[in-house]
Amino acid sequence: MQDFNLTGSIVAIATPFKANGEIDVDAFDHLIDFHLENGTDGIVVCGTTGETPALTGDEDAFLIERTVKKVGGKIPVIAGSGSNSTEECIRYSRKAEAIGVDAVLVVGPYYNKPTEKGMYQHFATVADAIDVPIVLYNVPSRTGSNISVDTAIKLANNFDNIVGIKEASGDLTLFAELIAKRPEGFKIYSGDDFLSAPANLIGADGCISVIANIIPQDFAKLMKDSMEGDVAEVNKLFYQYRDLMDLLFIESNPIPVKTALAAMGLLEEEFRLPMCTMEDANKELLLNEMKKQGII
């Protein structure tokens, strides 16, 4: 297996837009600086939180290249490059590899619901086509399909460049099964902020996180403490931010987190349809919790 040592707090970075719909490059650069200054361990660009379904292929490539250059090797950069077309996934992944990312995040094929055999063949074909490390991404609630534990472990054992999985099924028992069966060096990341600390306490390697967008320093500490088994510190931070974690999913991600970032003055409260502004009552709940925590 390829050596891939990223652990801890990995932010799924948001994509800022201007009122005219263009990418706000200055705000994006500032977000990257915000994470470099506050202890984030890695960045996922063009993930779900980055509103990737609403971006063009050229915009994806631009953001990936911008991130790689801006980060300058200080922390690892992972690019979302998944598709429900295997050929398209290979094309996106090769482009990200050529730009110089440290890994690609490849979501399970969505909508077309492959069989377990088809799921394995999809990732095997992608892994054969590229050299860059691959992190699998299992998020059944969005894709309508599931990367089973057996398929993930079989892929990890058969391909040196399949180095980890982002597990976002919301089921802690799956983390335990993955951890028990994984080959040495295979990383297991939570895709759910709420389960990230419990998963780390039983052996996971960190989180590809939404809440890290707004509390990067504290979330990095939560990841470090939980991976080190410091239960007292974990409980302190987890229960401090438990309500905020919930509120960041009161509407579809990334609507709440971008609303929060706008309240912090880090980007404009702009979305691309079908993402839209929050319902007033939900926004009030979110902003009140942020005020309670002293974030705004």
From TrEMBL:
SUPFAM superfamilies in the record: Aldolase
InterPro entries the UniProt entry points to: Aldolase_TIM (IPR013785), DapA (IPR005263), DapA-like (IPR002220), Schiff_base-form_aldolases_AS (IPR020625)
PROSITE patterns the UniProt entry points to: DHDPS_2
Annotated site (Part of a proton relay during catalysis): 48, 111
Keywords: Amino-acid biosynthesis, Cytoplasm, Diaminopimelate biosynthesis, Lyase, Lysine biosynthesis, Schiff base
Compartments where located: Cytoplasm
This protein's pathway: Amino-acid biosynthesis; L-lysine biosynthesis via DAP pathway; (S)-tetrahydrodipicolinate from L-aspartate: step 3/4
Keyword NADP on entry: no
Main location: cytoplasm
Alphabetical list of SMART domains matching this protein: DHDPS
Coiled-coil ranges (or none): none
Gene3D superfamilies in alphabetical order: Aldolase class I
Entry annotation: catalytic residues: 137, 166
E.C. no: 4.3.3.7
Record note on quaternary structure: Homotetramer; dimer of dimers.
Function: Catalyzes the condensation of (S)-aspartate-beta-semialdehyde [(S)-ASA] and pyruvate to 4-hydroxy-tetrahydrodipicolinate (HTPA).
NCBIfam families: dapA
Family per similarity comment: Belongs to the DapA family.
Name the UniProt record assigns to this protein: 4-hydroxy-tetrahydrodipicolinate synthase
Gene: dapA
